[in-house]
């Protein structure tokens, strides 16, 4: 086994990209290091960055599909090889990139026979397809296929909403908005016992809608935004009183148990 050698900063805290590659249109990889860190800091930053990369970055997905000819989600349509459910699952896999807010409409209008791919989706100006070869359906007969699509930008996982049979639209199950597919972090320690230092290694895989470096920048900004309120001076409290909403807090578990013990005595 060959050990890899990487040049790192030993005085000033710096980050660096040590590896970047494109495995496919829908799989980007990047590896980054941050050093030097005091003992324990690498784990603190690594855990926070992983959660931010996976949970705080927004992505764009197709969330609903609509067609007048579809009686229900599990129907089969004459002249189309796939069932409606299979088409919905194929639409779920389409990787999009956008800067949109809220929802937008898109369309597929093709005539068979032939293959239907993501290239055939008519998109609004603010949305682009990452891989226009992604399969949607095969038309085996000279029929018209027209599907209306709803596109949404969000984060995390999409929750299935109730079917709207009255307008012939169907939600796509469990869409994954996350552009980051996976994150690993590891720690390398160096130095003597009196002054141990650490190097944080971050590995990031994305779906191609963001590069790993873009994802790292966005996750860092999101974390900073979450911590900024703690930097505000306490005298601003009076300014916020008018917009605050009172919430009744539950007892802490230890306090609750202590109260019950006292009542028993």
UniProtKB/TrEMBL annotation:
Q: Which CDD domains match?
A: RNAP_alpha_NTD
Entry keyword annotation includes Coiled coil: no
Q: Name one GO cellular component term.
A: DNA-directed RNA polymerase complex
Q: Tell me the domain of life.
A: Eukaryota
For this UniProt entry, the molecular function terms from Gene Ontology, in alphabetical order, are: DNA-directed RNA polymerase activity; protein dimerization activity
Print the keywords alphabetically.
Chloroplast, DNA-directed RNA polymerase, Nucleotidyltransferase, Plastid, Transcription, Transferase
SUPFAM superfamilies reported for this sequence: Insert subdomain of RNA polymerase alpha subunit, RBP11-like subunits of RNA polymerase
Any one GO biological process = DNA-templated transcription
| Domain DNA-directed RNA polymerase RpoA/D/Rpb3-type, chain residue ranges per copy | 29-233
Its annotated compartments are:
Plastid, Chloroplast
Task: Give the Enzyme Commission number.
Answer: 2.7.7.6
The reaction(s) annotated as catalysed by this protein in its Swiss-Prot or TrEMBL entry are: RNA(n) + a ribonucleoside 5'-triphosphate = RNA(n+1) + diphosphate
Task: Please describe what this protein does.
Answer: DNA-dependent RNA polymerase catalyzes the transcription of DNA into RNA using the four ribonucleoside triphosphates as substrates.
Family per UniProt? Belongs to the RNA polymerase alpha chain family.
Q: What is this protein called?
A: DNA-directed RNA polymerase
Q: Which gene encodes it?
A: rpoA
């Amino acid at each position: 086994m060959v050990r890899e050698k990487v040049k790192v900063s030993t005085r000033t805290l710096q980050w660096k990209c040590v590896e970047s590659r494109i495995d496919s249109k829908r799989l980007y990889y990047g590896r980054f290091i941050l050093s030097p860190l005091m003992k324990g800091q690498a784990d603190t930053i690594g855990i926070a960055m992983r959660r931010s990369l996976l949970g705080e970055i927004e992505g764009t997905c197709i969330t609903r599909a609509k067609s007048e000819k579809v009686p229900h989600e599990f129907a089969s349509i004459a002249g189309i090889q796939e069932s409606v459910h299979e088409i919905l699952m194929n639409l779920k896999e389409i990787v999009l990139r956008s800067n949109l807010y809220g929802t937008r409409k898109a369309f597929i209008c093709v005539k068979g026979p032939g293959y239907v791919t993501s290239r055939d989706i008519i998109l609004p100006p603010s949305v682009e397809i990452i891989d226009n070869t992604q399969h949607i359906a095969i038309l085996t007969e000279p029929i018209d296929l027209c599907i209306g699509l709803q596109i949404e930008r969000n984060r995390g996982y999409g929750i299935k909403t109730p079917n709207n049979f009255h307008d012939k639209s169907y939600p796509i199950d469990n869409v994954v908005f996350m552009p980051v597919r996976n994150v690993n972090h590891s720690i390398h320690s160096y130095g003597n016992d009196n002054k141990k230092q650490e190097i944080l290694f971050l590995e990031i895989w994305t779906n191609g809608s963001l590069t790993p470096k873009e994802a790292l920048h966005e996750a860092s900004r999101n974390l900073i935004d979450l911590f900024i309120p703690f930097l505000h001076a306490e005298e601003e409290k009076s300014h916020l009183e008018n917009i605050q909403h009172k919430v009744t807090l539950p007892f802490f578990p230890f306090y609750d148990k202590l109260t019950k013990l006292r009542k028993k005595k």
